[in-house]
Amino acid sequence: MCSSTPTLPARCSSQIGYSKRPQFALRTLQAAVSMTQSITTEADRPDVSRLEIQMSASTPTPNAASALEINTLGFRYPSGFELSLPSLTLARGEELLLVGRSGCGKSTLLQLIAGLLDPSNGSIRVGGTDIHALRGAQRDRFRGRSIGMVFQTFNLLHGFTARENVLIALLMSDLPKADAATRAETLLRSLGLDRLDALAEELSVGQQQRVAIARALACRPTLVLADEPTASLDPENALNAVRVLRDACRDEGAALLVVSHDPALESHFARRERLEQLRETNTSHAAGGVR
User: Fold this and answer.
1) Between β-strands 95-99 and 272-274, what pairing exists: parallel, antiparallel or unpaired?
2) CB-based contact 228:261 (threshold 8 Å)
3) 3-state SS, residue 11
4) What share of the chain is helix, strand, coil (3-state, %, to 5)?
5) How far apart are CA 200 and CA 38, in angstroms?
6) pLDDT band at 15 (very low <50, low <70, confident <90, very high)
7) pLDDT tens digits, residue range 133-178?
8) Residue 180 and residue 163: Cα distance in Å, rounded?
9) What is the arrangement of strands in the sheet containing 272-274, beginning at the earlier edge strand?
10) How far, in Å, are 19, 62, 168, 287 from residue 178 at the CA level?
11) For position 241, what pLDDT does the model report?
């Protein structure tokens, strides 16, 4: 992990451990909260004093028609699993459901798009910026401002309120403290949540997901990535959660890429793709898949 990654309090790190993929969850959250480089004074920072944040300066300037553009992407795990994706483009504000069976590389692809993994070849551009051309804190800060993430287990910080979970994401923005507080409250209330000062662990599963969506959209990202967002929900709540996620992204003008193996979601997206049809793999896949 790069040296720019912040140190989270031990109680925060332990709470992230409930994820089925705790290392991915911890690395993602640490990368997200390290993207605060342009906020240089305490007066301009949202007041979430229980986190220790490191800051440095760097500002990529994305400017392109596409929210996401992938070209000749290649990646290989030491285990032998190989992912190859010739091309994939997502326009600004567009929605895409990417479906595929477990082990076909859906989550690996999201980690590559978010810059949490580095490809062996090819390029990934988000809003016109090649995320893998950025390094360290510069990449972290770009991710925090341009890419929102919604995880299947939400990965909220327990011990912090719904409001604070969104304010943490806003630490990577240029908003003054008062504006950040307004942004967090407006987002949460627009998603139907009125328990803004309840701790994350006191909220229902549906309420936790709304906080996760608000956190993902807090900095008005170009692209939102949702990894199996309905996996922990019953069928009725799952469809409602997808509706809330789609409506929120549409309201904020963010493109949305959802990966899932749930066939029930397919009728709710105008654009659907199967990862197995988009990608190319060699026979080493048989050595063992990944999610």
Assistant:
1) parallel
2) yes
3) helix
4) 40, 20, 40
5) 28
6) very low
7) 999 999 999 999 999 999 888 889 999 999 999 999 999 888 898 9
8) 10
9) 147-150, 223-227, 255-260, 95-99, 272-274
10) 32, 27, 14, 53
11) 86
* % of residues, the chain, pLDDT over 70: 74
pLDDT at residue 98, rounded to an integer:
95
Q: How far apart are CA 70 and CA 134, in angstroms?
A: 16
From 78, 90, 150, 154, select the one nearest 126 (Cα to Cα).
90
Prediction pTM value: 0.76
Name the token pair of 31: 């990368």
The helix (H) or strand (E) run that includes residue 252 is helix 235-252
**High-pLDDT (> 90) share of the chain, %:** 57
How many Å apart are CA 230 and CA 140, to the nearest integer? 27
Rounded Cα gap, residues 221 and 173, in angstroms: 11
Residue 193's contacts (CB-CB under 8 Å, 6 or more residues apart) are 162, 207, 210, 211, 214
How many Å apart are CA 169 and CA 150, to the nearest integer?
12
More confident residue, 275 or 7: 275
Q: What is the mean pLDDT of residues 47-68?
A: 48
Contacts of 281 (CB under 8 A, 6+ apart): 81, 82, 83, 84, 105
What single-letter amino acid sits at 226? A
Segment holding 136, helix H or strand E: helix 136-146
Tokens of 15: 């709470």
Evaluate whether 211 touches 166 at the Cβ level (below 8 Å): yes
pLDDT tens digits for range 19-37: 334 444 444 455 444 433 3
